[in-house]
User: What shape does this take?
Amino acid sequence: MEAKERLKIPRQRMPEQTPEQRKSNFFEVPLGYTPELAQKEALRCLQCKRPTCMDGCPVEIDIPGFIKLIEDEDFIGAAKKIKETNSLPAVCGRVCPQEDQCEKTCVLAKKFDPVAIGNLERFVADYEKDEGEIEIPKIEKKTGKKVAVVGSGPAGLTVAGDLVKMGHEVTVFELLHKAGGVLVYGIPEFRLPKAMVEAEVDYLRKLGVKIKLSWPVGASQTVDELFEEGYQVVFLGTGAGLPNFMHIPGENLCGIYSANEYLTRSNLMKAYAFPDHDTPIFSGKNVAVLGGGNTAMDAVRIGLRLGAKNAYIVYRRSRAEMPAREVEIHHAEEEGIKFHFLTTPIKYISNEDGWVTGMECLRMELGEPDASGRRRPVPIKGSNFIMEVDTVVVAIGNSSHPLVPRTTPGLEVNKWGNIIADLETGQTSRKGVFAGGDIVTGGATVILAAGAGKKSARAIDAYLKTL
Amino acid sequence: MSKILEKESLGPKINLIKLKVPHIVRKAKPGQFVILRIHERGERIPMSIADLDLENDILTIIFQEVGKSTAELATFKPGETLSDVIGPLGKPTPIKNYGTSVCVGGGIGIAPLHPIAKALKGCGNKVISIIGARSKELLFMEEEMRKISDELLITTDDGSYGTRGLVSEPLAEMLKNKKKIDFVMAIGPVPMMKAVCYVTKPYRIKTMVSLNPIMIDGTGMCGVCRVSVGGETKFACVDGPDFDGHKVDFDELSIRLKMYLKEEKIAMERYLSLMGKQ
Ligand SMILES: Cc1cc2nc3c(=O)[nH]c(=O)nc-3n(C[C@H](O)[C@H](O)[C@H](O)COP(=O)(O)OP(=O)(O)OC[C@H]3O[C@@H](n4cnc5c(N)ncnc54)[C@H](O)[C@@H]3O)c2cc1C
Ligand SMILES: Cc1cc2nc3c(=O)[nH]c(=O)nc-3n(C[C@H](O)[C@H](O)[C@H](O)COP(=O)(O)OP(=O)(O)OC[C@H]3O[C@@H](n4cnc5c(N)ncnc54)[C@H](O)[C@@H]3O)c2cc1C
Ligand code: SF4
Ligand code: SF4
Ligand code: FES
Assistant: This one.
């Protein structure tokens, strides 16, 4: 087909549940492409000689390559092509901020809508799963070298997948009872079904990765003890798991959650299915979520699905500064989430039983740009008002998980507690210890964590060859 | 997965189970705890370490049936497996020779108190233990506690055994009689720990308590276990569970422990009706 004709095809929308339907269930919002839709979308790709889309993909997927295979109706071949470099296609296809990655650098993006690369990636990954044809690629000859990976988020899983394919023996240690990091405890079912993550983790197991769950490194064993046990490299992908609070009066009242708690209850512990699952969660009528990132959008949409009459986002800047992905903000708006921009709480109000009943807030205005380049919110004197709430979720970001840094002498961290590591190799201040993902960069994205894992795996392989 | 090796009933709704968990036992210290899940739909249940058998890698926990999860745990038999056990979590109790240490245990709190008292004795303290329960049949570990204590006092609320009254009363008595006490470790229900701290505070005796707020991950990730200590918010699972009792806001802890009363009732009623049908 001629390029001219290809350019005439509009970007294919992915069918989704209507806002009315999805408001009260936890099923995935977008429903996936049909083979017809996928092939039509695949036709839009110009198969560029110099595919600029690939510049935007940290895990180096051969994008035109896999799209061509979709066009040719070889969906399984397309899945295999992606898996040559990315162990987590069903996850990335769903939650990667494609608009800032591959789709931003796609040549079409300047004049037209970019090719829906993420949707296509998701389609082939799901297709392969549904067909049950998952084949194990050839593994390099065993090297006899042992690597310990701490943390099973996207960074850890990527390192593990890549190194095991290179023939090393890899064991992942995860402190929770399920592997996946934020993918299982943070991102809700309606955006990333947990069965997808499980399947992706199972694939790694089939490749030969050993996964030890409920295993907190730093408590069960220290990093130094892992070396004593014969591991030659330790990779730290422990994430940004420590919740930040605002430290305003009343923050320990009943009904006030950190985003991590709210999300963990709902996602990892499946509290939305209480009492079928044992862990409870409070289904508030007026739920306010503080913050403007992906985490805040996820929490507020959970609040709505648990039965809130009013689910609010309370954010101290304006819509333009919200760090959440545009599609998530849009989904939230469609579902009827109410946004209070330029608003910040200063104290909580409670009843006699110690439950939160309200939140005293201040209105803000935007002043001069701050260190992040965004205009700084400044409180407006005397603008105090009270919001009636019975549930508050504090989603103002996380700091690094301290367990490993605290128990590993000689491991350098910066003033935010992030591990200092070379961004190209993951090398830390300790010999044989590498790190990547949120524990190094602070809260970022799935694909940046996976990309860091990819680079680190290469550096670890090179390091192991010197031993 | 972790297999239950032994199980024993220590009294009405009080059970002891033993688990073989080498990687936990190897590292565990008195004052720390584990978190377990009974099955795939289960919640994460924090349980203190009641005893450690280092030679055989065996961990003992003692628990009271208070709601759905602990009631279901009580139905597990030796040979059956729990889906997860993670630990050791929390900071160990600071053990050193304080001089004369009084170990106060109320109800189920005697379980975690035991290894701490043993360790205090082991490093040279004179250990006076005061243990108590609502009534005689709810008191357990008396012999074990007697073995490691220089002196053992027993109280029951109803007077069915030992002296009638609360565990804080003999302690108050000793202090009134000018007995020299250098350190107090108190573990039990929140009102009991609060009472002990109230008694020791005027004498400025270092008093540690072990807090049991609601927890999920137990590794500092969710913040549900936050407690106010000296006006600062701490995460009990990683900053504790032991804290300076004179600084703890016990009233806030009591309130936060009641957050899910309604849901706990629903879970228990549903569980009982399902059990009834079987
Ligand atoms: C609610 C929410 C929504 C998000 N949505 C998106 C999105 O739509 N798109 C996107 O790209 N990004 C999103 N992100 C960000 C993204 O999930 C993270 O950037 C990414 O998961 C980081 O990966 P990681 O591997 O570095 O760490 P994590 O995913 O945090 O994994 C770290 C793992 O290490 C474990 N661990 C920590 N310490 C230890 C220890 N001592 N021993 C053993 N295990 C340990 C933790 O339990 C955890 O499982 C979201 C984040 C959140 C919280
Ligand atoms: C560090 C720590 C150590 C503990 N050690 C022991 C022990 O050695 N023996 C023992 O019998 N109990 C111990 N507990 C308490 C035990 O975890 C709770 O009794 C148990 O979780 C109750 O669950 P349930 O479903 O049976 O009861 P529920 O009906 O759910 O709850 C009954 C009460 O227990 C408390 N509780 C509920 N969920 C939790 C939770 N996830 N974490 C903590 N408390 C909760 C609440 O106050 C609640 O009102 C400990 C708790 C902590 C935090
Ligand atoms: S992994 Fe992310 S950046 Fe790479 S092709 Fe897929 S959607 Fe694009
Ligand atoms: S840049 Fe866009 S059009 Fe070109 S190969 Fe990549 S996806 Fe296709
Ligand atoms: S239990 Fe989650 S932070 Fe303590």
Summary: The radius of gyration of chain A is 23 Å. The longest helix of chain A spans residues 446-465. The mean pLDDT of chain A is 93. Residues B 215-218, 220-225, 235, 237 surround FE2/S2 (inorganic) cluster (ligand 5) (CB under 6 Å).
